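Bug report

Summary: structure tokens for Glycosyl hydrolase differ between web form and batch submission.
Environment: batch mode, default settings.
Steps: 1) Submit the sequence below via batch. 2) Compare with the web form result.

Sequence submitted:
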Amino acid sequence: MGTPSIEALVKSLTVEEKAQLCGGKDFWSLHAVERLGLPSIMVTDGPHGLRKQSEDGDHVGLNAAVPATCFPTASATAATWNPSLIEKMGKALGAECRAEDVSVLLGPGINLKRHPLGGRNFEYFSEDPRLAGDLATAWIKGVQQQGVGTSLKHYAVNNHEFGRMTVDAIIDQRTLRELYLSAFEKAVKDSQPWTVMCSYNKINGVYAAEHKQLLNDILVEEWGFEGIVVTDWGANNNRVAGLKAGQTLEMPSSGDMNTKKIIAALEVGCLTESELDYAVTRLLKLIVKAKETLSLPRVQADLHAHHDLAREVAHESVVLLKNDNGILPVEAKQQKVAVIGALAAHARYQGSGSSKINPFKLEQPLDELKNAYGAENVSFAQGYHLDNRSDLEAISEAQLLAKESDVVFVFAGLTPKYESECFDRSHLDLPQNQLELISALAAYKSKVVVILQNGAPVTMPFIDDVSGVIEAYLGGQAGSSAVADIITGKVNPSGKLAETFPLHLDDVASTPYFPGNGRQVQYREGIWVGYRYFDTANQAVLFPFGHGLSYSSYDYSNLTVEAPQALAADANSVVTVSLDVTNTSERDGAEIVQLYVGQANPSVPRPLKELAAYQKVFLKAGETKTLKFELDYRTFAFWDVVKQRWIAETDSYTIFAAASIADVRSEQSFTLNTDTAKSEPQASLANYFTPAKRDFSEPAFAALLGYEIPAEDPVVPYGMNSRLGDIKDTEVGSKVYQGLLEAFGIMLGGDENASAAEADRLMAEAMVADMPLRNLAVFARDRYSEKEVLALIEQLNQ
């Protein structure tokens, strides 16, 4: 007998069952309704691998997980610029979920990289929403082809960790639409993720979990989203308000606290049963889809094949940043190879936090280079300590080894305590003891290559003192063999940066406003994020967006642009661009061709160039291929805040064919006739037309917003959304803070690696400090009821 229709199921549920379904059963599971044949389905982390707990779920959810494939993190996979490869990765992730009866995998993370210090940037794809949206779409399609759902996150404007649970992000509507929602829009429309996860923070004064404009008006009514909205774990603020706004599922379980509130709201008329049924209908569709997959024969995931796929992804994730005098590749032949750096023996292959995977197999760079060159030809020196201690003896040992060797590979990067969920980075630098080591090797510049393991941009004061630099990112469990294949020339590097590497922290336009004070963060820079700012302001960078070298060389020619007589938003006409690309070397390789578009005389501030399209093309030595691109109306459009729609103005535009934002190979200008005449530049936005001046003053930002900048919430009097960090120095609050810190420290602890243990400590401190008091009744239910939290607040305010 099959499952009854969704309509019949809704009618069969009691009010109590409906209310209960709108909250989790525990940390990772949804409620079952056994009498109707509806199972309890499981959801779990994470974006670059399955993180299913092997023991009973704890309230923080970070204990030991079953062995799984650890793929490269999102900052690495974005460097592939290869959606088809990311779709293959998604299929593998979905298969591992099937093997473990997991119904929804909580990813991908798609938030824009507003600032390079964002603590969770390693989990996000790019500073460009078009690229991020494409990759997320591919990831979702791959996973969901296996009958497993995904959770597109964190919706929205969640771009830093400090104060993330309560901070109010003040942002203008145009910037919101063009940058911070655009990738979500692409993924929702093109892949229909089963769920969207709303973020912790407020957006313009309203918590994401009860933001009707975001959850209903835009996501459902405008984009056509068919799935459910689930809260990030602990993001619920007002359960009834959230339900009315489109928040379907609260996670994790808050016991029966919010179930009772939903029922009470029905009884007094604050919530209608039709509003509740709307949410329950969507939830039932999710559960029924999951049930269909769970009823199929259980699959056996091929972890060894997935390891090979992880290596393939890592191959294309590696970015060759510098290669003076063709120092790379260093082919596997008889020579003395020096491998220097503690990270060569203890690789940093993933980030810290909720996405942490337990890899079933793990490679180390030193082992892989010994395999490549022969153990007898490879010597190792530690060079530095992972706990950041300076050691002159270790540096001297490294110098001696470098002197005696033919080539020197220095492994450097960010140890776990430098980047993690829950806290942001405090600077862009590598650990000081690593910089001291690299500086000490400057005398051997001609034979030194630095290989970086990090999840986000770093500064490189040593850039002129080494001959080669490889950005390996956090390459997953097979990243070490991938790097060895690149170094030896077995694989030709093809990765390109999906983010800008700035020269200095102060060069980033959002630095003065990042990350705010924990209560409010102002997005004063508007659209001037990443390459949009650096390129338009002519601000020098360390490495530009889209940069990446190859062992091959490529020539671009015959750029042609064909525009229709008129391009309208509601028409199917497109601008067609074609381009010939030739591999002019004697080595097969792949090139990522990037198209950028710029408008000559816009009525609103626009970047000099914006990514319009791209293709990754594989070319044999000497081969030429013709690439074709179709650019639709949206490619040329901006969000008009008055008309509340996308507008492309009749004007002159330029198409730039480029190897990076800073390496334009060919360009062509043309006149585009659209459905909108060009207007005069908006005088009120004068400051934003000249981003190089960075005069984003309060009056300028108010003009951009269209209203006065809101006042931030005061610290006192204390309330349910006060942070534990706000009360930790009070006599009453210190006891609460210390008690939670001890409990979370135990749950997060246990890592034998000293650097990882330090990261866990910092993460616990940040997690507890940022927790709003309302969540004591969720994450510490054994200690605090909601009534007791209210009593605590009353005591704090006396």
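Above is the batch result. After comparison, the two runs are identical; trailing whitespace caused the diff. The longest strand covers residues 589-599. The CA atoms of residues 226 and 708 lie 36 Å apart.
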